[in-house]
Amino acid sequence: MLAAWASRRPLARNLPALLAILGAACLLSLIGIPTTVAAQHPSTSESPEPAASTTAAADSQAVPVTLVLLGHSVQGRPIRGVEMGAGPRWLAVIGGIHQGREANSTVLANLLLHHFRHNLAEIPEGVGLAVIPDLNPDGALAGTRANANGVDLNRNWDAAWQPDAYGPSGLVPGAGGTRPFSEPETRALARYLLDRPFVAAIFLHSRGGLVVPGPGGGSVQLANTIARAAQYTYLRGWTAYPLSGQASKYLARRGIHVAIVELTTHTHPDFPQNLQGLRAALAWTQHLPPPTEPRGVADAEFSHICRTLPGPYRAGLTSPLCPW
Prior knowledge:
Blueprint: H1 10-13, H2 15-29, E1 35-37, H3 55-62, E2 65-72, E3 78-85, E4 89-94, H4 104-117, E5 127-132, H5 137-142, E6 165-167, E7 170-172, H6 184-194, E8 198-206, E9 210-213, H7 217-230, E10 233-234, H8 247-253, E11 257-263, H9 271-285, H10 299-307, H11 311-314
Parallel strand pairs: 1-2, 4-5, 4-8, 8-11, 9-10
Antiparallel strand pairs: 2-3, 3-5, 6-7, 9-11
Helix pairs in contact: 2-4, 7-9
């Protein structure tokens, strides 16, 4: 198992309620699945107890399912995911890195989670699927793109990081955070993905009906595979505005292939298209070699990032280590 290896339109105004309903439905469907703190006690995971003699119950016996806790947000809300399958190669689907107008990415992630939780046989042999529906729960509650600190969680990674970062509204002062990985949400996801055998990741955004690859040939193949299956437009690179501190660039350096999916609108989850896209991505992942060893990231690495920051951003630190 994976654990052992280590929005202002009319419909958009109703998205928080829809997110709450879908999130509750998904969690209710997962009753009986043990909770694991991914970064602290990975060896305590167990498979769910078999239910009645149905096809879904047989699938549950054959395919492990585990609820994991990645960490907590700035305001202390849990960031949870669900692992389905046994690997040894794993694919992650991440929703809600941006909330606000992009909250339909969390709706889609919950729909995909619900589907595969009840259709475990669709996960190919040798592949594990992890779904993290909401990386930014504080932003989801507030209806904002950024987290509770006003930081864009896709501008806070150690990849050409800048303190001020561009978004759809232009340059936003402080959107990159005070330093790379200053936010607990980005640190939690980085640890989770790099401490475990992930070979690919899909980040859900909106809008545009596009699939954009991260750096590298593998990311290009993954994005093309999803675009063809979902009937989205493949876009080789983002040119609308400059990007800094992106998750995709950081993860690509660590050997994880990344595709960024932009849903067609800010309101609809595009579930049928993205179900086909994820099925194709899982089949593609099946042919990748599994990682040969962990690529773990620890506090020491985050601390090194802080020590190498330019003086103005290091001035507030009280010791050589970051105060996290």
